[in-house]
Structure formats: C-alpha cells, structure tokens
Design a protein that fits this description.
two-stranded antiparallel ribbon; 216 residues; five-stranded antiparallel β-sheet; 21% helix; alpha+beta; Type Iii Antifreeze Protein Isoform Hplc 12; 31% strand; 2 domains; flat
C-alpha cells in the first residue's frame, strides 16, 4: 500500500471516529436533557441587595434552571417581586424566595403545625391549576426499554398554595405540553412519599379537582 493511500485511509478513519464520537455526545446530552426536564426561569438578585431595600427591576435577573432543580417557592416573573422589601441582605446571584422578603408572611397562606410545602413541576393546565384549588398528583414510572410504566395516584386532593406556568417541554414525551410549577400543602409523610415517588418518575401530572370534590 502506498504512503499516500495509507494517509487517505487514516484520514477517513479519523473522520469516521470523530463523527461517531460527536453522535454519541449528542445522544448523551439529549438523554440528560430529557431526564432533567425543560429549563425553568428563576428570579435571582442581579447584585448585592441590602436588608430593607425595595426591589426594582434592576435589582433582579432571570436565570434558567432544569425543572428538577428549581428551588422551593422560587419566583419565575420579575414583576412578582418589584416593589417587595428584603428582610435580610441578599448576595448577588441568590435565588429570591419568600423567606428573604420582609412581607413574605402577608403574601399567601401559612403552613400549620405539622404541614410542609411540597414543590412539584409537572404536566398540567395553568388555566385549571390555581392557588387555593385542589389537585391529584399522578406519577408514571419508567417501564421496560424506555417505555412508560405503571401510572398511579401519589397524592389526592392536595391544596395548591402557589401555582405558575412554566415553559412547555422541548423534547421527549413532554414536548409541547403545558406544565406548571406548584407548591402543595401536605403532611411530612406525604412530602416524603412524593419526593420518593419523583425519584423514579418518568412523568408527573397534576390533575385539577372540581370545587365540589374538595379535600379527599
């Protein structure tokens, strides 16, 4: 075999291996994106903010976080925070949550003794899933060979403390479907059961209940 032909073959082999490696990386990135869910907007401080400051739009920045890692009670819209006062100093880049705000106790229902707020990002209708309403939470587990597994109710008649729409899924089974981020009033036992169920879930779905049904 001539030296020139050998060089051409080696170059072709290098190009083929490079293409295979790039394809494998793309496949792994897509699988990871499906696992983490769509990216959700979360409001953070744009710079250091002193305690007692009144927040303006310039004090806030939007960052995107995979749905699975959205902080508890995070805000997704700058306008929800403009005009609010900070209770403590907020370092630059910190996610703004009710615990950091001076008026947090005036801005919604309080948890009673023994209760917890469980935060879920799931498939659901922003028009039907509203604060003050009640929902059931259905979880579909992973099946064999990547197919959906068994679907079961993980929670019945949970009260919705907060609810907001998030971006629809961009790929996989959730592509184009409406999604909501909700905070639910639950017991500690229910919160633990829901967290455990989410660890093996292929899909979470919140189902709005009619006003007549009320609590379970």
């Amino acid at each position: 075999m001539s030296r020139r032909r050998r060089a051409v073959l080696l170059l072709g082999l290098a190009l083929l291996l490079g293409a295979l490696a790039a394809s494998d990386v793309s496949r792994r990135e897509a699988a990871l994106a499906d696992q983490l869910g769509p990216r959700v907007p979360v409001i953070a401080s744009a710079h250091d903010v002193r305690a007692g400051a009144t927040l303006g739009a310039g004090d806030l920045a939007v960052r995107e976080v995979p749905a699975r890692y959205v902080p508890a009670e995070a805000y997704g819209d700058v306008q929800d925070l403009v005009g609010r006062r900070t209770a403590v100093a907020v370092p630059s880049g910190t996610d703004v949550v009710p615990a950091l705000l001076a008026d947090a106790g005036l801005m919604g229902p309080r948890l009673r003794s023994g209760e917890r707020a469980a935060d879920v990002v799931a498939v659901g209708s922003p028009a039907l899933v509203r604060a003050g309403g009640r929902v059931d939470v259905a979880i579909t587990s992973e099946g064999v060979d990547g197919r959906p597994g068994r679907t079961a109710l993980a929670l019945r008649g949970a009260e919705v403390l907060t609810a907001r729409a998030v971006s629809p899924g961009a790929s996989g089974d959730d592509a184009g479907r409406q999604r909501v981020a909700v905070s639910l009033r639950v017991t500690l036992r229910q919160a633990l059961a829901l967290a455990e169920a989410q660890s093996f879930a292929r899909e979470l779905r919140v189902l709005a209940r009619s006003d007549e049904e009320g609590a379970p």
